[in-house]
Structures are given as C-alpha cells and as structure tokens.
Amino acid sequence: MSGPGQDSEPEAKVLLIKRLYRAVVESVHKLDAIIGSKSSYREVFKPENISLRNKLRELCVKLMFLHPVDYGRKAEELLWRKVYYEVIQVIKTNKKVRWQKQLYSCGSVPLVSTQPYTSAD
Question: Which Gene3D superfamilies match (predicted)?
Fold first, then answer.
C-alpha cells in the first residue's frame, strides 16, 4: 500500500525541517552580529532584535518537536544560548562597565564642585 502520497509526505517533512534549520542558522548569524557589536547592550533591546529572538525561539521549538532525534538537542542548545543566556551576559558585562563609569562620575562631582573654592587662592 505504498502510494505516491505516502512517499511524498516524508520528503515534504524533510524539506520543511531543512527550511526551518536554514532559517534558524540565518537568525543565529544575525544575532551573532548584534552581540558582537561594541554597542550590543543598546542593540539587544531594540524591537527588531527582540522580534528576531522571538522568531528564533519559535523556530527552535518547531524544530525540536518536528525532529527531536536529529535536531532536538542542537535546537534546544541554540534556544537557550542565543535567546536567553547571551542577552543576560551582555547585560552583566555592561552593568560592570556602566557601574564603573557611574562611580567615576560620582566621585568626580565633589572634586569639581570644590574647584572654585580651592583655585581662588
């Protein structure tokens, strides 16, 4: 009972999986470019980048459920790393840099404010 409809169904599913995987790889490359930029802490929360991460999340979930044996582990790893972990790392890294800049600026305010008094000798 192997008719033409039964043989084409697995091929259609394989093509769908390949298209999904290709879309995942393209999204990952775009996110890598964003994370690699110097102002990544500003870029991460732009609406187009948030929608790109949401798209990647949806594609990874579809890929995990369509073909869990071959692509499930990789899709899950990409999902966590690109959608969640790297964003957290960018925030943590830049939090330290911004905190140091704030400490420097806060520490220099009292010195600047005393300048008129000390330079009027």
Answer: Tetratricopeptide repeat domain
